[in-house]
Description:
The structure is a single chain. The protein has two helices and 15 strands. The chain is mostly beta strands. It folds into two domains: 1-125, Beta Barrel (Thrombin, subunit H); 126-228, no CATH class.
Amino acid sequence: MEPVGVPPEAGGLTAAAAVTTSPALPATVTLTPQPPFPTSTSLPFRIVGPLAIDGPRRKLYAQVQVNGAGKIGVFSAEDGSRQGVLNLDGGVAVDPGRGRLLVDDPSTGLHVLDADTGEEVKLIQLPPRPTLTANEMTGQRDDRTPDDLPRVQPAVVEPSGQVAIARGGTVWIVDVGDGGAHPVSLPSDYYEQVLTIKDLKSPAPGEPLWILAGSGGAAWEATFVSTD
Length: 228
């Protein structure tokens, strides 16, 4: 799946070519800002999610809205200019060493794209998850549909190359190679309070996964869990 509106010469560079032919990245990159004040008018293009950086290929990715529709924006890491959009809507991350662009949409699954060509090479769908929370004594249910769930940026877990993705209050570890997935055991509070996961981070190879979650007006709090 190639970015829409991108000329052929704007394709991804190999890591070697980037080192030998491209200048150093600027210290800062300016992207299209969101409006400084609330507005009732829908903007034709705006960035709505965090950046994913592909240094070797000199590209940036982010969740965007184009005339109100969710897409993945593709930008130049040289000057921040727009290079096009991908017709996918979800949290986006890059595994530059393995040449993978990862887009997680709870409605469709984890899309694995070739970072050089933009073509989709695999779609991994998760097994169904019961609506009852893990702590059945609370009687609380999570009745949200996949469309209602936030689009959370995936996290690449090193050194395995597995991908952590979030579904409401559940974290899944996905093996991109064989398409298998298993849920991570989380603290009981996640289930008792029907917490929503907001952010995932994998700090360094071999370190626990970092999760930021909260519920309603409660303060967001971080926790570390093993990905085994």
